[in-house]
Specification:
The chain is mainly alpha-helical. Helices cover 64% and strands 11% of the residues. The chain has a 3-stranded antiparallel β-sheet. α1 crosses α5, α2 crosses α5 and α3 packs across α4. It is globular.
Amino acid sequence: MDMEARVHSEHPEALRLWLRLLTCTQLVEKQVRGLLRQRFDTTLPRFDLMAQLERAPEGLKMNELSRRMMVTGGNVTGITDQLVAERLVERIDVEGDRRAYCVRLTAKGRKQFHDMAREHEDWIVQAFSGLTDKDIGTLHKLLGKVKEQATTAPREAAP
């Protein structure tokens, strides 16, 4: 049973939409996770970490990686340790800070990431292949409004 099955027609349409978005996200993510495992023997968190590093060729400090990935430092350290062992990323000392270091993709890691990224893009395009280009544009625009509202709406204090 997916999350969407929990609501009924008497629930607000916005709640039903929210659960539809969550369900779709989970379904696509499950497909991507499976394909990454099957095709590249890797995980989505490893792919995500490599994607962050691909966008920062000079490397990123561990705390910046944690912030960008929205996970704990321990999670990033564990993934980084694996990728270092496979020679896909390297640690670089940070000048002036003996406690910190940057992580960056190696040439081998960059090539592997590019191979994965090409297929990942195809998988995402396939996931939306039931929509026309106009549908995709409209949905993107509408979700942009939701994003804007969520980032600018005043926050209520938690009880």
